């Protein structure tokens, strides 16, 4: 059954991908968690370049998100996304009248039939939820609604203290959820305010479903810890701690005299993967001190293994260029328009920034890295031409 679900998943993605909300990043070609975080930061940092502005970020939490999908509603939404009627019928039948019971030791509960929701652990569940919530979008230019499956974030870009659009979109979100059988969990929903104005006045709290929303100074957003100062010490501290804990396994493997190649593979999979978690999001804006802490972990691993390992800077540059190239090649990506070529076609147009926060974020630095790579390639080709000419002169002589 899992194999068949994988086939259905691939088929649905091919049909629905061009029609999905551009700000839905889950299960999309050439998109990742890093893209969702980087786009959120881009919206915020671009807006904060304007004087007198601030941002309110609402990290929405749903109660049992996958368990409340109504098959009949989902069928209508799939039909609107040009999914064939036969496939709509199969999915509706797949989600309807599912049998469930509970076993505790030798005791078995009565059989129950479930008519809502998608099965836990089902291959299709995250995509079906994304399709189910595809119509949940923002209708105002100053409010962005980002989604990664059931992780939903409402970003209000506030100017001149006017929060009417932000609060209006929040009311629309509550109304949409009510009509589609989704329940917002106001107790777990968190708001974070990013405000760099001098002496800002206290801001009125947000009320969601008749309950005040907690305002925090930091939040773990899709695996990356973001603070209201948009600094990365807390995130780097968490990564360093996890990587340090895993180094003990590397030392134990060294004691068993494993080959260097196996130790390097273990390091890459278990330690480097932690150090480079969402590295395109935070590395360029991290302080030199924080980068040095992470590099120390790499140096100590080199001593254990007995060979050199890629530096954090090298990993950041390669991954940023690779990620930027994928975005530039995907016209449907919301960040694609930032990678525009100059009339010469040899370089990309630099992104204008007014603050170092914005300048050190992913998109401006990615454009610079791609331009630098272009210059490096041009210089290399020029040197090769010179070498060929010199070699030709020697041959003629």
Automatic annotation (TrEMBL):
Pfam families noted in UniProt: ALKBH8_N, RVT_1
All copies of domain Reverse transcriptase, residue ranges: 1-226
Keyword Lyase included in the entry's annotation: no
Transmembrane feature ranges: 264-285
Keywords, alphabetical: Membrane, Transmembrane, Transmembrane helix
Molecular function GO labels: 2-oxoglutarate-dependent dioxygenase activity; methyltransferase activity
Protein name: Reverse transcriptase domain-containing protein
Lineage: Eukaryota, Metazoa, Chordata, Craniata, Vertebrata
